[in-house]
Amino acid sequence: MKQLNSHNFEEVYKKLDINLDTLGCVMLDNAHNWEKHIEAVLDGWKMDTVEIDHIGYFESTYDDEPYYCLVAHIKVTPELMEGHNRLELLPHINTFTGYKPHMTIGYIKKDETLREYYLKRLNDFWAGKKITVEDGINLGYKPEE
Predict the structure, then answer these.
(1) Per-domain residue ranges for the chain?
(2) What angle do CA 72, 91, 14 make, to 5 degrees?
(3) What is the pTM of this model?
(4) Confidence label for 27 from pLDDT (cuts 50, 70 and 90)
(5) What is the pLDDT of residues 35-45, one digit of tens each?
(6) Are 27 and 134 in contact (CB under 8 A)?
């Protein structure tokens, strides 16, 4: 099934007076406006470790930007789902269909040979490993006031 994202339906969002370019995830600087609300819904929730299920990739959704985004897919656990479900209590738009917890590793030019080389090396080292989760929320840099 083709991966759908909100940009496939830009006309819908324009009619709703929503500018997709102003939306982001909690790691972008616009999340600082929501910091107190994010902290409130996550109050009492903690996650000590995450486990890397495997290393994979996403293709760029933009034709004029041919690249692969290498990602560590995170094993879904009840604790992770609880955090996700808590954050979904806040007003939001799912930019992509389906919940795919991941950490971005890096971007490489769209070259299948290079992609497969990195996927093998990274999977050999990282697949199945647990990583300690630091306390706090990554809201990105705080914009100057």
Answers:
(1) 6-132
(2) 95
(3) 0.79
(4) low
(5) 899 999 999 99
(6) no
Round to whole Å and give the CA distance between 42 and 137: 10
d(CA 18, CA 126): 39
d(CA 6, CA 95): 5
Give CA–CA dist 65/114, Å, rounded. 17
Tell me the C-alpha to C-alpha distance, in Å, between residue 112 and each of 7, 59, 66, 108, 131.
25, 11, 11, 10, 28
> Residue 122 in contact with residue 105, Cβ under 8 Å?
yes
Distances (CA, A) of 121 to 28, 60, 116, 118: 29, 22, 9, 5
Token pair 């299920």: residue: 53
Q: Does domain 6-132 have CATH number 3.90.1140.10?
A: yes
The token duo for 139 is 């809201």
Cα torsion angle, 19, 13, 106, 73, sign = positive
Residues in Cβ contact with 142 at an 8 Å cutoff, skipping those fewer than 6 apart = 29, 32
